[in-house]
Specification:
2 copies of one chain form a homodimer. Chain A has helices at residues 11-15, 21-33, 47-60, 78-86, 94-106, 154-172, 192-198, 200-204, 231-249, 261-272, 286-292, 310-317, 321-327, 332-345, 393-412, and strands spanning 3-9, 36-43, 63-67, 90-92, 120-122, 126-128, 137-142, 145-150, 180-188, 210-216, 219-227, 253-256, 276-280, 301-306, 350-356, 371-378, 381-388. Chain A is α/β, with parallel strands linked by helices. Chain A has 3 domains: 3-172, MoaB/Mog-like domain (Molybdenum Cofactor Biosythetic Enzyme, Chain A, 3-Layer(aba) Sandwich); 180-256, Alpha-Beta Plaits (2-Layer Sandwich), CATH 3.30.70; 261-412, Maf protein (Alpha-Beta Complex). In chain A, strands 2-1-3-8-7-6 form a 6-stranded mixed β-sheet, with helices on both faces. In chain A, strand 16 (371-378) and strand 17 (381-388) form a beta hairpin. The longest helix of chain A is centred in the last third of the chain and has 20 residues, at 393-412. At the A-B interface, helix 1, helix 2, strand 2, helix 7 and strand 10 of A face helix 1, helix 2, strand 2, helix 7 and strand 10 of B. Strand 14 (301-306) of chain A pairs antiparallel with strand 14 of chain B. Chains A, B: It holds the Pfam family CinA_KH. Chains A, B: Residues 5-172 form the MoaB/Mog domain. Chains A, B: GO terms for molecular function: hydrolase activity.
Chain lengths: 413, 413
């Protein structure tokens, strides 16, 4: 099995200004290719530490992949250090220089002089195109050690990985035919330890598969991986285990692998030819944001009233002032009227409303922070569910949004 | 200067299922305390690798802080391994066991048997309260080596860090009086290399301060740090450099340190006693979500119409059908009428509308993906700005939202 060592550079990754999402993305993709990530190092924009990490990576793995440090600023050192560690000269690439000039011309901006640095490359390196930003990547093949340098901005790095790096790795590392089979089962409702109890039998006898549970924003993802002598055998082993898990958890499964709860809802609505409108209070637009993260959601999503104030609940959703005065803005009755209102002001088939107390303020003994009402209306039907979540503002808002989507999923089914 | 070594555990961190936000948060907080993070290791739920990381950490730093692996499942190994490496016995804590029983009782759930593991602790460890989840943390003091074990879920870890760990570190590490002074200047508009050119003079002569630029979702954060013989001298050095940078970039600065663009807008509106309503098309609720991330935003935020479909633009915002037919839903004219509509249907003082093409589909040669219109209306005034962004769907939506907020900021000022 081929191995990889990942290096993420940038002082900001040690100071805590930003997340290292890059090595995570690359780990996931490499695993699918059957390349094992044996180590991960995070270093600042510091020459000495970067050299150490480079040497360690080159000593221990077949391929070293770095992200970051390819930009035009003084802190961007990765290319220079790769040349130094590998003993390769740096040369100007005229074509890349022209592309850089074009990039800035298209945006009606002059190219800052410092950007010329981005057209310098290790001699004989293969240049990897950056279709989003200004910093190209590169691939350096020296003996049996391969080095790949990628830009730091996640969207640039991802596009480059998908378009350029993956085909290159398959070719250059002579990756054998795909051997590993993987499936992620996505569950919503029960917690991690409850899921572990449900599938304890399978986990105790996993048929040679690895089973990993991950709790994330109210969901639990069950990742099953089989690594046998060939893909067919891996797939067969995987299927047995996956089917066993599905049997035990089927009530809570919303999807598999790349599927997300919002993408699943959009697909379901599209299949049934139904449209949806929301009335969001405590989630403040988050449900709509999640739905419209899905390209093509416009075919099923009419729109939303983010009725954060009582005035907007009354003015736009026809919630009766008396209902709010009597029961409060966070109540079964208000949620009911909000959902009915969403249906009324729109021509959507389904109206969904949420109202709750996201905190940190606004809770009382009767209605504590975390109390949430979700209403779903269609035709003459309307149902309201009361839920209570524990956590901070962000967590309560996300759990509310996810629960609303899950309720919709169950109702559509 | 005291040093720390961070270990993040969890196979999911190597497989790419989740982000290691924990070590980032801790790095940032430690830096503020004047504790230097000298290394970071990410390991799977693998006994052997975890032991190696532990030993390395204990050898090289004054304090080792781990996150994750304190839960009830079989994969949760951190506590057991800490006992093994440090040569300490594990004992049952009755009080923690009772707390666990209460946690589940409050949620009307039986405690899974496996959770009892969470009440076992290294002998003489100080237990750190988890006010959100079930896994307490702990502090182990052995000779001159300190070990702190924290739970993996970020919201639990953060609360525990703030409430328990920080005071403990200050006390137990005998941290000298604060020496380091730091300021983050937050800028929106120009790119990283443009900012570097603007402040090139300061960067070439930084008065002994360190200056780090970070580009993040359309913003650039300029972090300046001074580390001199005492806090007063650090602060004096910092002030000179910060003032120089402010002078060069003042047109683009929206805030400092913990301030975010949305929190700044909420504060500005509150100060002026103005309320705001949005009409969002391509951003699909994202602007509202960002505004309502800010606790207390209800005092200035009337609500939003997420008018994702033409029907909702016409039906709720009174955009003329003819305007859309003639100019398209993504046009100056439609944005104008949406903002006017937001003002009309609400009783807010300011109406803001965005419409654009977020992609990946829907672009044409005349109106490519990334073309966006932002309109701001108040009283009888309405202005529309046309922008063009490059990037994927997520990036275009976020840049649009940020630009809208920045325009609002400029108008309010």
């Amino acid at each position: 099995m081929k191995t990889a060592y990942l290096i993420s550079t940038g002082t900001e990754l040690l100071l805590g200004l930003t997340l290292d999402t890059n090595s995570i993305f690359i780990s996931e993709r490499l695993e699918k290719l059957g390349v094992k990530v044996i180590g991960k190092s995070i270093v600042g924009d510091n020459k000495e530490n970067l050299i150490k990490a480079f040497k360690l990576g080159l000593e221990s793995a077949d391929v070293v992949i770095t992200t970051g440090g390819l930009g035009p600023t003084k802190d961007d050192l990765t290319k220079e250090i790769a040349c130094e560690v590998l003993g390769i000269q740096s040369v100007l690439n005229k074509k890349v220089e022209d592309n850089l000039q074009n990039f800035f011309a298209k945006r009606n901006r002059d190219m800052p002089k410092s950007n010329i640095k981005q057209a310098m490359f290790p001699k004989d390196a293969i240049i990897l195109k950056n279709s989003i930003g200004t910093a190209p990547g590169m691939y350096i093949d020296k003996g049996n050690k391969k080095t790949i340098l990628l830009p730091g901005p996640p969207n640039e790095m991802r596009k480059m990985y998908e378009d350029e790096v993956e085909p290159l790795l398959i070719r250059e590392l002579n990756l054998e035919e795909k051997k590993i089979a993987t499936k992620v089962i996505k569950v919503i409702g029960p917690g991690e330890s409850q899921i572990e109890e449900m599938i304890a039998e399978v986990m105790n006898n996993p048929n040679g598969c690895s089973i990993v549970l991950l709790a994330h924003e109210g969901e639990v993802h069950i990742r099953v991986t089989a690594d046998r002598k060939d893909f067919k055998e891996s797939q067969e082993n995987l299927d047995i285990v996956v089917n066993n898990i599905i049997e035990k958890t089927s009530n809570y499964i919303y999807g598999y692998d790349e599927e997300t709860l919002p993408s699943n809802i959009v697909k379901l609505l599209d299949k049934k030819g139904k449209t949806i409108a929301f009335a969001e209070s405590c989630t403040g637009g988050l449900i709509s944001k999640l739905i419209t993260d899905v390209p093509g959601s416009s075919s099923v999503f009419w729109g939303t009233i983010v009725s954060y104030s009582n005035k907007s609940k009354i003015g736009l959703l026809d919630v009766k002032e008396n209902t709010i005065n009597k029961n409060g803005a966070v109540s079964e009755e208000t949620a009911y009227e909000m959902a009915k209102g969403a249906l009324k002001v729109s021509d959507a088939d389904i109206g969904v409303a949420v109202t709750g107390i996201a905190g940190p303020d606004g809770g009382t003994e009767q209605k504590p922070v975390g109390e949430v009402y979700i209403a779903i209306a269609f035709n003459n039907y309307c149902t309201v569910k009361k839920l209570r979540f524990v956590g901070d503002r962000d967590a309560i808002r996300m759990l509310t949004a996810k629960s609303a989507l899950d309720l919709i999923r169950k109702k559509i089914k």
